C-alpha cells in the first residue's frame, strides 16, 4: 500500500512538470494499464499510472473552459458572487465566481479575477453582482525572482482576468455578506495600532499588511505565525481538548456517566477547530491540518495503529484527490517539508524522559526550531531568495508567545466583539500591546544581529543537493559517513564564488505594458526604465524588477536611466530609489543629452538622443542609449517616433545587433529607414498580451521580419535573457526554458460549455 501511495503522489507531482498533457483519448488506455498492474500486484507501476491519469484528468477539466475568442477585450456582462474578503480601504481587486456570461448560464465552476477602480458601492464577500467588464485569458508577467501570478491563477481556478468598464451598468443583485465579511467590517471599526497583524491572526485576512510588513516576515522567518495554518489549528484543538477535560471531567466523574470523556473532548476539539478553519475561510493550509486531525481521531477511535510514514502518505494522497491543484501551491510543499522535518527530529532525537518538564519541552522546542530552520533553508532560499539568520532565535521566542498568549487572546476578543464592541475593543487593545512588545523584541534582535541574507536565483539542483546534504548530516553516524555530505555542498559553495564570466548580460524584463532592461556584468548593473505603477497600488518595480535584481545577486545600481516620464517607463522610479542604492541617475529631464558618454565595466555607454534644448512630446524626448563592447551593441530607444528616427538616421551610428523596439511596436515608430540603419539581428517588443493598443502592430512586426530580423515579444517569452561574449549572442526565454509546463502555455480561446 505504501509503495502505491508514494508512486501515486510522485506521478501526480511530476505530471505538473510536463510541457503537454497526455491526450484525453489516451487516459482510458492508461487506466486499463493501471488496473492490469494492480491485478498483477505491481503496485508501484499501478500507482504511477493512476497518479498521471488523475492529474491529467484534472488538467483537461480545468482547460476545458476557455474564454471565447469573440469575448476577448470586448465589453461583456457577467454575473456572479464575490469570493474575496474585502475591506473599504483595500484595493478593489477581487475574485468572482461566474454564473453567467452575457446570455449564457454556466453550470461549471469558473472564476474571474477583476479590478474595479472606483466601485459604485462597497464590495463585500458574498454579494451577487452584475458587471460590465473586459476580459482576457489568464496571463501574467514572468521573471526570475518574481511571483508566478499565472500559476497562482490556475491553481485558484481563475480562467480569465479583467476590469470593470462601466459603473452605470453595474448592479448589486443580492446584498448578503458572509459571516467572515461581517466580522471583518466590525473589526475594521476598532482603533488599533497593529490592526493588520491582528486581522491576519484572527481572521486570516492579510490585505492590510504592507510591503514593509512582508519584508519583516521574510527577514525573520515568521510567515507561519501570521497565516492561520496547522500550527494555529493544532493549538486551538489542544486548547479545546484541555478545556473540555478540565470542565467536564469533574462533572462526569461525580455523576458516573458512561461517557468516554476522551472521545467527547476529541469531538469538541474537532468541532471548534473546524470553526476556526471556517473563520480563516477554509484556506487550504487549514483544511489540510483539519483533515489530518480527523484522520488521527478516526485512528484513535478505531484502535488502529499506522506508522507515521503511512499516515503521512495517506493524508497527502487524500489532499491530492480532494485538492489536486494545491500541488502548485508553495504552502503545500512548505507544510509537507515541515512535517517531514518534525518526524525526522522525533525519530533522530527521541524524548526518552517519561516525566514532562519545562526543561524537556524547551529542549524539544529548541531541537525542532534548529532542524526546521536548517532543513527548510534550501526550499525557502530557492523560492524566496532570502535566508533568515535570526529565524531560529525569533521562532523559539515567538512561537510560544503567539500560540500560548496572543492567539487565545485574539480569539477571545473576536468572540466578545460579537457581543459588545467595547469589550472587543478592550481585549484587542491588550492584544495590540502584546503585538507591540513582540515587534519591539524582533527589532532588538535585528539590531544585534544581521537578520537576513539575500540569495541569488541559483538552479533548483543546487538547492536540492544542499537539502540532501543537510539530511545526510542529520542522519545517524552509522548509516552514512557525514564527511561525504561535503560533496553535495560543492554546487552551493561554488555558486557563492564571485562571477568571473567574460561576457555581459542583458535582461529584458517582462513588466507588461512598459519597459525595464537590466544590463549587468560580474555583479555590477545598470537599469533602463522602471516599468509602470498600478492604479490599484504597487508597481512593476515592487512586483518584478526588485525581485529580479535580488535574484541576479545585484545589491546596488551603478546607473539608473529613465527614458522619459510616462508611467509605463517611470512609474516605478520612486520604489527603485527607496529600496535599491543608486549611484547615478540619468533622466531625459536631466543629464540624458546627446553626446553623454561613459566607460563602464568594459562597456561604452553613449546617449544618442535628445540634443540640448529639444522640445516636443515626452515620447520624442526619450533618452536613447547605446551600450556596446566594441563588437556587439544594444540600442535602447524608449518611445521615439518616426520624426525622431529620421533625425537620427545618418546623423549617428545606430547600428546594433540587439534593439528594443521603439514605442513597443507602435505604427508611429520603426520606419524602414530606421530598421535599415540599425540593422538589428534581434528586436524585442516589450508589451502586455492583449494590450488595448494592439502592440506590436502587425505591419511593424512584418517590417522587421521582412528585413530578416528575429522578433521576440515579452508577453510570449517572459523575461528575455541575452548573454553576449566576443561577438556571440546566446538567448534564453524564461517562459520556454524554465516555465514551459502545460498550464503555463498560452490559453487557446475556446467555446462556452
Automatic annotation (TrEMBL):
Q: Name one Pfam family in it.
A: Lactamase_B
Top-rank taxon, per record? Bacteria
- Record's subcellular location: Cell membrane
Q: Which Gene3D superfamilies match?
A: Ribonuclease Z/Hydroxyacylglutathione hydrolase-like
Metallo-beta-lactamase domain location is 513-689
Q: What topology in the membrane does the UniProt record assign?
A: Multi-pass membrane protein
Segments crossing the lipid bilayer: 12-37, 43-63, 222-247, 259-281, 287-304, 311-327, 333-349, 370-390, 396-419, 452-474
Could you state one GO cellular component term attached to this entry? plasma membrane
Q: Give the UniProt record's GO annotations in the biological process aspect.
A: establishment of competence for transformation
Q: What is its main location?
A: membrane
Keywords for the protein's UniProt record, in alphabetical order: Cell membrane, Membrane, Transmembrane, Transmembrane helix
The cross-references to PANTHER family, in alphabetical order and at most eight, read:
DNA INTERNALIZATION/COMPETENCE PROTEIN COMEC/REC2, RECOMBINATION PROTEIN 2
Q: What is this protein called?
A: DNA internalization-related competence protein ComEC/Rec2
- The scientific name of the source species is Bowmanella pacifica
